[in-house]
Amino acid sequence: MTIVYGAIMVIALIGMIICSKKQKTNPAMQPIAFVLFIVVVIGGVMLLRETGTFGGQESSLLKNEMAFYASQGTEVGQYLAQNNPGKKVLLLVEDVNNENVKGLANALKEGYGGEVVLDTIGVTQQNPEMPMPLYMIMKAADFDAALEKNADAGIVVSTIGLPQDALRMKYWKTAADKRPMLFLIGTPSGQISGLAAAVAKGDIAGVVVSNPEAKYDVAAPSDPNEAFDIRYVLVDKNNVEQYKNQLM
Fold it and tell me: Rounded to 5 degrees, what angle do the CA atoms 143, 33, 36 make?
Protein backbone atom coordinates (compact mmCIF):
# COMPACT_ATOMS: atom_id res chain seq x y z
CA MET A 1 0.00 0.00 0.00
CA THR A 2 2.96 2.32 0.49
CA ILE A 3 3.51 2.45 -3.26
CA VAL A 4 -0.19 3.08 -3.87
CA TYR A 5 -0.34 5.97 -1.40
CA GLY A 6 2.85 7.41 -2.84
CA ALA A 7 1.50 7.21 -6.38
CA ILE A 8 -1.77 8.89 -5.36
CA MET A 9 0.17 11.72 -3.74
CA VAL A 10 2.35 12.28 -6.79
CA ILE A 11 -0.56 12.26 -9.24
CA ALA A 12 -2.66 14.58 -7.07
CA LEU A 13 0.31 16.90 -6.54
CA ILE A 14 0.95 17.20 -10.26
CA GLY A 15 -2.72 17.92 -10.88
CA MET A 16 -2.77 20.50 -8.08
CA ILE A 17 0.23 22.33 -9.51
CA ILE A 18 -1.34 22.42 -12.97
CA CYS A 19 -4.67 23.69 -11.62
CA SER A 20 -2.95 26.29 -9.43
CA LYS A 21 -1.15 27.72 -12.45
CA LYS A 22 -4.37 27.93 -14.42
CA GLN A 23 -6.71 29.20 -11.68
CA LYS A 24 -6.03 32.89 -12.34
CA THR A 25 -7.25 32.56 -15.93
CA ASN A 26 -9.79 29.83 -15.23
CA PRO A 27 -11.51 30.21 -11.82
CA ALA A 28 -13.08 26.76 -12.21
CA MET A 29 -9.66 25.29 -11.48
CA GLN A 30 -9.64 26.68 -7.92
CA PRO A 31 -12.00 24.17 -6.28
CA ILE A 32 -10.32 21.35 -8.21
CA ALA A 33 -6.90 22.47 -6.93
CA PHE A 34 -8.24 22.51 -3.38
CA VAL A 35 -9.72 19.01 -3.67
CA LEU A 36 -6.43 17.70 -5.06
CA PHE A 37 -4.59 19.33 -2.17
CA ILE A 38 -6.83 17.47 0.28
CA VAL A 39 -6.02 14.25 -1.60
CA VAL A 40 -2.30 15.01 -1.21
CA VAL A 41 -2.74 15.60 2.52
CA ILE A 42 -4.76 12.43 3.07
CA GLY A 43 -2.32 10.43 0.95
CA GLY A 44 0.53 11.81 3.03
CA VAL A 45 -1.20 10.90 6.28
CA MET A 46 -1.88 7.36 5.10
CA LEU A 47 1.70 7.02 3.85
CA LEU A 48 3.11 8.12 7.20
CA ARG A 49 0.84 5.75 9.05
CA GLU A 50 1.76 2.93 6.68
CA THR A 51 5.44 3.50 7.35
CA GLY A 52 4.84 3.89 11.09
CA THR A 53 6.24 7.42 11.22
CA PHE A 54 3.77 8.59 13.85
CA GLY A 55 1.95 5.41 14.78
CA GLY A 56 -1.77 5.87 15.25
CA GLN A 57 -1.71 9.55 16.18
CA GLU A 58 -3.75 11.93 14.08
CA SER A 59 -1.70 13.89 11.61
CA SER A 60 -0.92 17.51 12.41
CA LEU A 61 -1.42 18.17 8.69
CA LEU A 62 -4.94 16.79 8.89
CA LYS A 63 -5.68 18.87 11.99
CA ASN A 64 -4.40 21.91 10.14
CA GLU A 65 -6.77 21.30 7.22
CA MET A 66 -9.67 20.69 9.59
CA ALA A 67 -8.95 24.05 11.24
CA PHE A 68 -9.04 25.80 7.88
CA TYR A 69 -12.26 24.00 6.94
CA ALA A 70 -13.96 24.87 10.25
CA SER A 71 -13.02 28.55 9.84
CA GLN A 72 -15.76 28.77 7.22
CA GLY A 73 -18.30 28.00 9.92
CA THR A 74 -17.04 30.82 12.12
CA GLU A 75 -17.03 33.38 9.31
CA VAL A 76 -20.43 32.39 7.93
CA GLY A 77 -21.95 32.21 11.42
CA GLN A 78 -20.80 35.74 12.21
CA TYR A 79 -22.08 36.99 8.85
CA LEU A 80 -25.50 35.43 9.42
CA ALA A 81 -25.65 36.78 12.98
CA GLN A 82 -25.16 40.29 11.62
CA ASN A 83 -27.72 39.92 8.84
CA ASN A 84 -30.36 37.52 10.16
CA PRO A 85 -29.98 36.83 13.90
CA GLY A 86 -32.15 34.71 16.16
CA LYS A 87 -33.13 32.02 13.65
CA LYS A 88 -32.73 28.25 13.64
CA VAL A 89 -29.95 27.29 11.20
CA LEU A 90 -30.10 24.12 9.12
CA LEU A 91 -26.70 22.89 7.93
CA LEU A 92 -27.04 20.50 5.00
CA VAL A 93 -24.05 18.17 4.67
CA GLU A 94 -22.92 15.02 2.93
CA ASP A 95 -22.45 12.98 6.12
CA VAL A 96 -23.74 14.10 9.51
CA ASN A 97 -21.30 11.77 11.30
CA ASN A 98 -18.15 13.11 9.64
CA GLU A 99 -15.76 14.67 12.18
CA ASN A 100 -14.77 17.43 9.79
CA VAL A 101 -18.43 18.29 9.35
CA LYS A 102 -19.00 18.28 13.10
CA GLY A 103 -16.14 20.75 13.50
CA LEU A 104 -17.71 22.99 10.88
CA ALA A 105 -21.09 22.77 12.61
CA ASN A 106 -19.62 23.66 16.00
CA ALA A 107 -17.81 26.65 14.50
CA LEU A 108 -21.00 27.77 12.76
CA LYS A 109 -22.94 27.52 16.02
CA GLU A 110 -20.30 29.48 17.90
CA GLY A 111 -20.07 32.14 15.20
CA TYR A 112 -23.84 32.50 14.92
CA GLY A 113 -24.58 32.23 18.60
CA GLY A 114 -27.77 30.24 18.09
CA GLU A 115 -29.26 26.86 17.24
CA VAL A 116 -27.65 24.86 14.43
CA VAL A 117 -28.97 21.46 13.33
CA LEU A 118 -27.30 19.00 10.97
CA ASP A 119 -29.13 17.11 8.26
CA THR A 120 -28.51 15.63 4.84
CA ILE A 121 -30.40 15.10 1.60
CA GLY A 122 -32.38 11.88 1.42
CA VAL A 123 -31.57 10.09 -1.83
CA THR A 124 -31.38 6.48 -2.95
CA GLN A 125 -27.88 5.36 -3.89
CA GLN A 126 -27.83 2.91 -6.79
CA ASN A 127 -24.70 1.28 -5.37
CA PRO A 128 -24.57 1.77 -1.56
CA GLU A 129 -21.11 0.18 -1.41
CA MET A 130 -19.74 2.89 -3.71
CA PRO A 131 -21.94 5.91 -2.97
CA MET A 132 -21.78 8.92 -5.27
CA PRO A 133 -21.51 12.50 -3.94
CA LEU A 134 -24.90 14.04 -3.27
CA TYR A 135 -24.38 16.95 -5.63
CA MET A 136 -24.16 14.47 -8.50
CA ILE A 137 -27.40 12.62 -7.80
CA MET A 138 -29.71 14.88 -5.77
CA LYS A 139 -32.64 16.50 -7.55
CA ALA A 140 -34.67 19.61 -6.89
CA ALA A 141 -37.39 17.48 -5.27
CA ASP A 142 -34.82 16.00 -2.86
CA PHE A 143 -33.60 19.45 -1.84
CA ASP A 144 -37.18 20.68 -1.44
CA ALA A 145 -37.96 17.67 0.77
CA ALA A 146 -35.04 18.48 3.07
CA LEU A 147 -36.27 22.06 3.45
CA GLU A 148 -39.83 20.91 4.10
CA LYS A 149 -38.56 18.44 6.71
CA ASN A 150 -36.88 21.35 8.51
CA ALA A 151 -39.57 23.94 7.84
CA ASP A 152 -38.87 25.70 11.15
CA ALA A 153 -35.35 26.67 10.05
CA GLY A 154 -35.01 30.34 9.18
CA ILE A 155 -31.60 29.86 7.55
CA VAL A 156 -30.31 27.02 5.36
CA VAL A 157 -26.57 26.63 4.86
CA SER A 158 -25.62 24.06 2.23
CA THR A 159 -22.17 22.46 1.95
CA ILE A 160 -23.36 20.23 -0.89
CA GLY A 161 -24.21 22.98 -3.34
CA LEU A 162 -27.48 22.90 -5.25
CA PRO A 163 -29.07 20.15 -7.37
CA GLN A 164 -28.30 20.12 -11.07
CA ASP A 165 -31.92 20.96 -11.79
CA ALA A 166 -31.95 23.71 -9.15
CA LEU A 167 -34.23 25.92 -11.25
CA ARG A 168 -37.02 23.43 -10.53
CA MET A 169 -36.81 23.99 -6.77
CA LYS A 170 -39.95 25.29 -5.07
CA TYR A 171 -37.70 27.64 -3.14
CA TRP A 172 -37.54 30.17 -6.00
CA LYS A 173 -41.33 30.27 -6.31
CA THR A 174 -41.84 30.97 -2.61
CA ALA A 175 -42.19 34.58 -1.45
CA ALA A 176 -38.99 35.95 0.07
CA ASP A 177 -40.63 36.49 3.46
CA LYS A 178 -41.97 32.92 3.49
CA ARG A 179 -38.76 31.04 2.77
CA PRO A 180 -35.49 30.60 4.70
CA MET A 181 -32.32 32.51 3.90
CA LEU A 182 -30.10 30.33 1.70
CA PHE A 183 -26.30 30.34 1.94
CA LEU A 184 -23.76 28.09 0.19
CA ILE A 185 -20.43 26.99 1.62
CA GLY A 186 -18.60 26.00 -1.53
CA THR A 187 -19.88 24.81 -4.88
CA PRO A 188 -18.86 21.12 -5.08
CA SER A 189 -20.18 20.77 -8.63
CA GLY A 190 -18.19 23.77 -9.84
CA GLN A 191 -19.63 26.96 -11.27
CA ILE A 192 -23.43 27.20 -11.27
CA SER A 193 -25.26 28.98 -14.06
CA GLY A 194 -27.12 32.01 -12.74
CA LEU A 195 -25.55 31.84 -9.28
CA ALA A 196 -23.95 35.29 -9.45
CA ALA A 197 -27.26 36.83 -10.49
CA ALA A 198 -29.06 35.02 -7.65
CA VAL A 199 -26.57 36.43 -5.14
CA ALA A 200 -26.85 39.92 -6.58
CA LYS A 201 -30.63 39.71 -6.39
CA GLY A 202 -30.59 38.36 -2.84
CA ASP A 203 -32.20 35.00 -3.62
CA ILE A 204 -29.01 33.47 -2.24
CA ALA A 205 -27.51 35.40 0.66
CA GLY A 206 -23.92 34.45 -0.06
CA VAL A 207 -21.39 31.87 -1.13
CA VAL A 208 -18.00 30.90 0.24
CA VAL A 209 -15.48 30.37 -2.57
CA SER A 210 -11.75 29.72 -2.73
CA ASN A 211 -9.53 32.75 -2.34
CA PRO A 212 -7.79 33.33 -5.71
CA GLU A 213 -4.60 33.94 -3.69
CA ALA A 214 -5.14 30.99 -1.34
CA LYS A 215 -2.08 29.52 0.41
CA TYR A 216 -1.99 25.79 1.12
CA ASP A 217 1.47 25.49 2.63
CA VAL A 218 0.93 27.50 5.82
CA ALA A 219 -0.26 26.67 9.31
CA ALA A 220 -3.79 27.69 10.25
CA PRO A 221 -3.73 30.76 12.55
CA SER A 222 -5.41 30.36 15.94
CA ASP A 223 -7.83 33.13 14.92
CA PRO A 224 -10.41 31.41 12.65
CA ASN A 225 -11.16 34.68 10.84
CA GLU A 226 -7.50 34.99 9.86
CA ALA A 227 -7.50 31.36 8.77
CA PHE A 228 -10.59 31.99 6.65
CA ASP A 229 -9.01 34.92 4.86
CA ILE A 230 -6.02 32.78 3.85
CA ARG A 231 -8.14 30.21 2.04
CA TYR A 232 -11.58 31.63 1.31
CA VAL A 233 -13.71 34.61 0.31
CA LEU A 234 -17.29 35.26 1.40
CA VAL A 235 -19.19 36.56 -1.60
CA ASP A 236 -22.48 38.42 -1.15
CA LYS A 237 -24.33 41.15 -3.02
CA ASN A 238 -21.73 43.70 -1.95
CA ASN A 239 -18.79 42.06 -3.73
CA VAL A 240 -20.42 39.64 -6.17
CA GLU A 241 -19.36 41.71 -9.16
CA GLN A 242 -15.71 41.24 -8.19
CA TYR A 243 -16.01 37.47 -7.88
CA LYS A 244 -18.80 36.71 -10.34
CA ASN A 245 -16.49 34.69 -12.60
CA GLN A 246 -16.14 32.13 -9.82
CA LEU A 247 -19.91 31.74 -9.49
CA MET A 248 -21.41 31.91 -12.98
Answer: 85
